């Protein structure tokens, strides 16, 4: 059984927004999107779709070719190029299955993200002056933020040095500038304005960003910055070390694993200069407050459920253990050491979705109790009271070449 949140339908204009191909701007102008109109009707569910968790019925087919993300109560996902269209599309879809807006760009602008612009959920999408039709490479790239409810642009075009690398609004080159050398330029943008964030020190590098708070690393310490004000929120040199770490000099860095940190919960790796001991701890991104000391764990995977006020941590003890903590108090809520490992793929509105021994399961986030198990498709995204899950590949399907229609069907479930 799933815990459900309430949601309110958002009135949207009949017209939607589409981003024209990244080329085509006048010389000297920054690349920027252009609006056009699209239909918004929901597609019916695939006849192959079985019932979902808690016997929920398939409601509609999502227009996505890859795992979607969510912002507010909107699903956002990619549509790969088709035979008759070389552009990549990114669209926002309501819980009812209506396409509220879409953007089109060349495949060089594949990266996109979600953020919060002064309380408004937003999608951040790249544009460039590349042109896939004649092989012209991008010389200018911009980031643009759109209100996920109607596609209205909130800020941009903001020049960036490269792709959206993440986590959060961090942009740059994905590979080192020279073999064995330092990485290329990286820039963090402020979620409020799209303006570059000034690092707290000259050699500080952007590591992580979430909804207006950024984390920078420099000389064995990490510093959190309010990206709107540019002020320092906290520094690892001035917050208490995890209880199991001990005393003495410290070297602190963001754990180098993308799944280790999630939303406003970051995993920091604490080590002594002589490396005699190490500890991984979860901290509140905004304040630096310790949430949980995980001990010497190098591969945690965190999932945050703000409605439940909990963070679920898997990947512990070589993926044999899962623990859940109250975000506010740090108290351990439950622990799972079952010989049949539990794998969590999504947490939403108090329910964790995943698999155990090949069967789909739902787990109560606050208690760890199994709510149901079965053979339904495992959800990968959720908004309001709707879950989206991929169907198994068709028997005739081959490896995906990132072409429209080659990926799995993504089906929306709900009562």
Strand content: 35-45%
Largest sheet: 4 strands, antiparallel
Poorly predicted ranges (pLDDT <50, ≥5 residues)?
Answer: 1-28, 176-182
Strand order, sheet with most strands: 1-31-30-29
List the helices and strands and how they pair.
Elements: E1 57-62, E2 69-71, E3 74-79, E4 88-93, E5 99-105, E6 112-117, E7 120-128, E8 141-147, E9 153-160, E10 163-164, E11 170-172, E12 186-188, E13 205-210, E14 213-218, E15 221-226, E16 231-235, E17 251-254, E18 265-271, E19 278-284, E20 290-295, E21 301-305, E22 310-316, E23 321-326, E24 332-336, E25 342-348, E26 351-356, E27 359-364, E28 370-374, E29 381-383, E30 386-390, E31 410-414
Antiparallel strand pairs: 1-31, 2-3, 3-4, 4-5, 6-7, 7-8, 8-9, 10-11, 11-12, 13-14, 14-15, 15-16, 17-18, 18-19, 19-20, 21-22, 22-23, 23-24, 25-26, 26-27, 27-28, 29-30, 30-31
């Amino acid at each position: 059984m799933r815990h459900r949140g309430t949601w309110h339908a958002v009135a949207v204009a009949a017209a939607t927004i589409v981003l024209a191909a990244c080329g085509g701007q006048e010389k000297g102008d920054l690349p920027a999107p252009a609006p056009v109109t699209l239909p918004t009707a929901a597609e019916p569910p695939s006849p192959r779709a079985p019932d979902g968790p808690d016997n929920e019925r398939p409601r509609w087919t999502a227009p996505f070719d890859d795992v979607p993300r969510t912002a507010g109560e909107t699903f956002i996902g990619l549509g790969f190029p088709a035979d008759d269209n070389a552009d990549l599309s990114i669209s926002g879809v309501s819980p009812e299955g209506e396409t509220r807006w879409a953007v089109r760009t060349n495949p060089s602008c594949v990266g996109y993200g979600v953020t919060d612009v002064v309380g408004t959920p937003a999608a951040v999408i790249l544009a460039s002056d590349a042109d896939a039709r004649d092989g012209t490479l991008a010389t200018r790239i911009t980031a643009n933020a759109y209100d996920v409810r109607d596609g209205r642009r909130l800020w941009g075009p903001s020049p960036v040095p490269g792709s959206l690398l993440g986590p959060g609004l961090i942009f740059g080159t994905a590979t080192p500038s020279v073999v064995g050398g330092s990485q290329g330029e990286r820039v963090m943008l402020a979620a409020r304005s799209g303006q570059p964030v000034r690092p707290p020190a000259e050699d500080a590098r952007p590591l992580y960003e979430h909804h207006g708070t950024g984390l920078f690393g420099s000389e064995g310490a990490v510093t959190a910055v309010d990206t709107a004000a540019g002020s320092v929120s906290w520094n690892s040199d001035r917050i208490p070390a995890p209880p199991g770490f001990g005393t003495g000099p410290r070297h602190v860095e963001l754990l180098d694993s993308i799944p280790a940190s999630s939303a406003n919960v970051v995993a920091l790796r604490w080590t002594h200069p002589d490396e005699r001991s190490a500890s991984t701890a979860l901290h509140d991104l905004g304040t630096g407050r310790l949430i949980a000391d995980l001990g010497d764990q190098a591969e945690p995977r965190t999932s945050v459920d703000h409605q439940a006020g909990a963070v679920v941590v898997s990947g512990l003890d070589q993926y044999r253990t899962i623990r859940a903590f109250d975000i506010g108090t740090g108290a351990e809520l439950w622990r799972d050491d079952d010989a049949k490992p539990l794998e969590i793929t999504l947490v939403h509105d108090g329910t964790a979705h995943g698999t155990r021994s090949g069967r789909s399961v739902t787990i109560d986030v606050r208690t760890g109790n199994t709510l149901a198990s079965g053979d339904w498709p495992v959800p990968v995204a959720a908004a309001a009271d709707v879950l989206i899950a991929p169907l198994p590949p068709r028997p005739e399907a081959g490896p995906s070449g990132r072409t429209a229609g080659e990926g799995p069907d993504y089906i929306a479930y709900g009562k």
